[in-house]
Design a protein that fits this description.
This protein is α+β, with helices and mostly antiparallel strands and 133 residues long. Helix content is 28%, strand content 34%. It has four helices and six strands; from the N terminus they run αβββαβαββα.
Length: 133
Amino acid sequence: MTGEKNLVKLIKKMTPKLNSGDYVFATVSDLSKIDRLDTICEFKESEGVTIVIEKSKADNLNLTYNYVASWITLMVHSSLEAVGLTALFSAELTKYNISCNVIAGYYHDHIFIDKKDSKIAIDVLTNLSKNYK
């Protein structure tokens, strides 16, 4: 099954879902101490490996982080070749001064936003989906 590319269909069907829990971004130089089943995602950078992990697991590992996030999944199967989805929802969140950190998976887009903004972000994304023309 291929993902959706049509921007109107993507926005209308995006159905934002707030995942339970608190998540953090941390950087590690040695992944051997991290259970890879615990990470939500990993990204190799020259300074170290950035991981997204549940806050409680990061605390148990004594990892340093500066940002506690909520995780929103857009439940539409978006194509990795789709154009404009991220730009549209991030511009809408910007109107409410909500920062978003986006990670594209094969099936869905995942948005990490400051924990304090989770309710308003869901409302903003839901309204965008319902009212987009």
